[in-house]
């Protein structure tokens, strides 16, 4: 009997080995109309009402449409479901006429009631992306194809906000049938997330066929799509964020687009005939923050010390850590946004002599000791602690002895950072929506400014300029105002912008239209197979 | 009858232990410094007290801790483990989704480690102090000491990237859609669907992660089998069997192995328990959507219901495995049953 059992078990093991060592998979990813994408997970829902992480915006952009959209890498929103729009003279009402031909995957037409439902739902769910509708006071639907969005105040970024994934327009009939509501108590009464995690209810080029968390997402062509389509019938999105396995999959042809490659892995891909690589800078920016309150910041509360520190940092070294494609913006608005002051010239930005002079003027000729409080977070895969090490080394050149203090994000760091209790730290800021106005939080009296205790008092002229920017809906004029406000803060800012994180994308050369996008990661509605 | 009474007693004890685990895990999650809202809300949302308040109300975090505890215990006994703060799905749904993937992988891993571990252990004991013994012992030490994440990457690099004889990460190739979930085990569900190619594909995807996971337990089983077999081989009844003229293989298989395997059973059981609860790294590298990944994500986002759900499940696994091992002890060795 025992012999039989052993023989059986050994036979079973042999079957495993033989089955395993048979020929390579016949991969559908290499066939004509299916594209396989590998991207990181780290998100938990595909319901646009709760969506705020970067990766799922790729899916939202495929399955849903927004009133406005960023097309072909443009940083200005173009009409999408909106046919046309006008602002009222006081800038407090935005009237949008919808495209009549637009329909949802269900066949229902896209109406003004769907727009009202979708935006109100996002606002009332009180989830992470609800802030996007903060400036929306009310929504009116004079007729089926006209929407009037009344604003709480002038908001020059409203078109960009309406292009954000969480402002995707949902098929209200379908969502309501499945537990959705846009009522004020939606945060406790809406139950549509389970439905929207399993399927989509949008008007996009694709429909969500299945979503297995941490494993894969399958998108199939929307048979009722009302617009022009590409020749890709199906997307299989593998939720595999490891750069090495993405590189291996891309090399072997198992996947067609790898979204999370690193400097190391792109070296492995060099010379591969069927693979193309893009190294781009993202709009996620890492920065050094120094507290303006002397009781908290100590010496770094001094503007001259802050300036000295900005001259002591080796920005080239920071960029090396952040990877190929990383750049350093000259001021608070990243390169790629309108109103940006462009890229910092890293060959001249570091000036130790000037830094030492400034320290001497500030009364710290012999330097000082300072804590640099750091969390365990990473910026697009780069640990912030690595940046801290570079800054520590750089500041030692001007006799500033940095002591790196590690703290857990959820166990106090996050609270202290938000409450303005940190003397000096390095953290990052990812854009909430694709508009330069998101960076105005770095101004005195604004959200991030206050984290450095940089208060409005004494900077009323900057606040006025801030309000002018919010009110200015003309792009070229707003761009000019943005440059001006950055000039105004140049001497006093307690922030040193270190680098815009890089992003490495690899893709099969049979594909066209693959371009990194901060808003959608890659816009799958622009990809074709050659 | 005696055995039935033993089993009933063990299962009654299991309920009491689960209550204890539920209490300890709840207390520990509350003692750990950290704020679930900070972990799950964006920086911008955290600056809005209304959103933070809505989050706490939604997840019952606005209640006093003692009330939260009583609600938690009541729900556990109603088999309602609550809703994940991270995914907004019911914890039971999440466990049901993740657990089959883990069991499927852990079962193959334990099967491989048992087969090869016992086999190598026997060979090593039979060829004591020979070159074969030295090689086997080196392999078992390597299996125990090699870091699993590194081994996983090496295995992928060699068998998937370079040799291209085994598939890469995931449970299925891109050319196959997931089978309709009946059991959650892809191999079984694909057979139920009648798709043999999908079955083979699912099997092939199991080989690399299962081999990586099997390495550690195989090393332990090899060492335990070898040392126990050597102990048993020096006993009087084995000497008697040899004196009766039985062949070496017959002595080992028919007389020595049964007794030598009793401690091995414990190693196998605990190894299986470890595999069910602790394969975060391997699951991450092989993109295996199992319990390890769910546990990791739950801890990372301080998803209290998720952490408690996984802990209870892992504790339950250990208790069940220990109960089964105790029963098996009695089957292998009647003296244990009598005691």
TrEMBL record, chain A:
Residues 76-440 form the Solute-binding protein family domain. It holds the Pfam family SBP_bac_5. The keyword Signal applies. Transmembrane segments: none annotated. GO terms for cellular component: ATP-binding cassette (ABC) transporter complex; periplasmic space. GO terms for molecular function: peptide transmembrane transporter activity. This is ABC transporter substrate-binding protein. It comes from Alkalibaculum sporogenes.
From TrEMBL, chain B:
It is a multi-pass membrane protein. Keywords: Cell membrane, Membrane, Transmembrane, Transmembrane helix, Transport. PROSITE patterns: ABC_TM1. The chain crosses the membrane at residues 12-32, 105-126, 138-160, 202-221, 260-286, 306-329. GO terms for cellular component: plasma membrane. SUPFAM superfamilies: MetI-like (SSF161098). It is found in: Cell membrane. Its main location: membrane. GO terms for biological process: transmembrane transport. Residues 99-329 form the ABC transmembrane type-1 domain. Gene3D superfamilies: MetI-like. Belongs to the binding-protein-dependent transport system permease family. This is ABC transporter permease subunit.
């Amino acid at each position: 009997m025992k012999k039989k059992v052993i023989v059986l078990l050994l036979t079973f093991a042999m079957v495993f080995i033989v089955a395993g060592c048979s020929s390579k998979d016949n991969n559908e990813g290499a066939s004509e109309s299916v594209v396989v994408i590998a991207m990181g997970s780290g998100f938990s829902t595909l319901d646009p009402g709760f969506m705020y992480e970067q990766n799922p915006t790729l899916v939202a952009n495929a399955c849903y449409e927004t009133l406005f959209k960023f097309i072909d890498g443009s940083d200005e929103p173009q009409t999408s479901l909106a046919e046309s729009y006008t602002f009222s003279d006081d800038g407090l009402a935005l009237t949008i006429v919808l495209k009549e031909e637009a329909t949802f995957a269900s066949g229902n037409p896209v109406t003004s009631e769907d727009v009202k439902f979708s935006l109100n739902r996002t606002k009332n769910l009180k989830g992470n992306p609800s802030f996007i509708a903060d400036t929306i006071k009310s929504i009116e639907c004079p007729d089926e194809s006209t929407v009037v969005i009344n604003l709480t105040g002038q908001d020059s970024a409203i078109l960009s906000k309406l292009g954000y994934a969480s402002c995707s327009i949902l098929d209200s009939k379908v969502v309501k049938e499945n537990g959705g509501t846009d009522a004020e108590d939606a945060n406790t009464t809406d139950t549509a997330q389970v439905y929207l995690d399993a399927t989509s209810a949008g008007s996009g080029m694709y429909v969500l066929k299945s979503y297995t968390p941490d494993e894969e997402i399958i998108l199939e062509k929307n048979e009722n799509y009302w617009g022009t389509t590409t020749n890709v019938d199906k997307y299989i999105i593998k939720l595999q964020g490891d750069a090495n396995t993405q590189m291996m999959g891309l090399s072997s042809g198992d996947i067609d687009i790898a979204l999370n490659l690193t400097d190391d892995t792109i070296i492995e891909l060099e010379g591969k005939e069927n693979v193309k690589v893009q190294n781009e800078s993202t709009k996620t920016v890492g920065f050094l923050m120094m507290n303006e309150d002397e009781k908290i910041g100590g010496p770094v509360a001094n503007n001259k010390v802050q300036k000295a520190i900005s001259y002591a940092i080796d920005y080239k070294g920071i960029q090396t850590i952040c990877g190929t494609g990383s750049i350093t913006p000259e001021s608070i608005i990243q390169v790629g946004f309108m109103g940006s002051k462009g890229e910092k010239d890293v060959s001249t930005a570091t000036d130790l002599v000037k830094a030492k002079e400034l320290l001497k003027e500030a009364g710290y000729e012999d330097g000082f000791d300072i804590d640099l409080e750091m969390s365990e977070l990473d910026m697009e895969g780069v640990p912030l602690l690595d940046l801290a090490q570079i800054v520590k080394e750089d500041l030692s050149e001007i006799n500033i002895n940095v002591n790196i203090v590690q703290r857990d994000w959820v166990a106090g760091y996050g609270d202290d950072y938000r409450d303005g209790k940190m003397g000096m730290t390095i953290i990052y800021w990812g854009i909430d929506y694709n508009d330069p106005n998101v960076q105005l939080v770095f101004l005195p009296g604004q959200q991030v400014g206050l984290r450095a205790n940089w208060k409005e008092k004494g900077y009323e002229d900057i606040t006025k300029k801030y309000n002018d920017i919010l009110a200015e809906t003309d792009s070229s004029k707003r761009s000019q105002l943005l440059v001006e406000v950055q000039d105004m803060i140049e001497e006093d800012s307690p922030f040193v912008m270190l680098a815009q994180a890089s992003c490495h994308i690899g893709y099969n050369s049979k594909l066209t239209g693959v371009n990194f996008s901060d808003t959608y990661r890659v816009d799958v509605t622009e990809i074709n197979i050659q | 009858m005696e055995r039935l009474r033993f089993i009933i007693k063990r299962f009654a004890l299991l309920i009491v232990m689960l209550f204890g685990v539920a209490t300890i895990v709840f207390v520990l999650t509350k003692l750990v410094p950290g704020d679930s809202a900070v972990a799950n809300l964006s920086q911008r949302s955290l600056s809005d007290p209304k959103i933070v308040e809505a989050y706490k109300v939604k997840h019952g975090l606005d209640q006093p801790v003692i009330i939260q505890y009583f609600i938690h215990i009541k729900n556990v006994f109603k088999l309602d483990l609550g809703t994940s703060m991270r995914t907004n799905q019911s914890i039971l749904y999440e466990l049901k989704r993740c657990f089959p993937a883990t069991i499927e992988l852990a079962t193959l891993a334990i099967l491989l480690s048992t087969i090869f571990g016992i086999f190598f252990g026997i060979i090593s004991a039979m060829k004591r102090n020979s070159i074969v013994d030295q090689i086997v012992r080196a392999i078992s030490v390597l299996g125990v000491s090699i870091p699993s994440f590194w081994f996983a990457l090496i295995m992928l690099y060699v068998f998937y990237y370079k040799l291209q004889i085994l598939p890469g990460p995931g449970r299925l190739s891109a050319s196959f859609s997931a089978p309709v979930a009946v059991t959650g085990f892809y191999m079984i569900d694909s057979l139920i669907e009648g798709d043999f190619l999908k079955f083979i594909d699912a099997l092939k995807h199991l080989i690399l992660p299962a081999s990586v996971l099997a390495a550690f337990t195989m090393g332990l089983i090899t060492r335990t089998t070898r040392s126990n077999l050597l102990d048993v081989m020096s006993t009087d009844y084995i000497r008697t069997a040899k004196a009766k003229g039985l062949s070496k293989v017959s002595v080992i298989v028919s007389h020595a192995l049964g007794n030598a395997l009793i401690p091995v059973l414990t190693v196998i059981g605990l190894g299986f328990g470890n595999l069910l609860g602790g394969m975060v790294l391997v699951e991450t590298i092989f993109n295996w959507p199992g319990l390890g990944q769910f546990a990791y994500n739950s801890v990372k986002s301080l998803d209290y219901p998720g952490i408690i759900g996984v802990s209870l499940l892992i504790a339950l696994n250990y208790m069940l495995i220990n109960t089964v091992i105790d029963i098996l002890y009695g089957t292998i060795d009647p003296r244990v049953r009598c005691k």
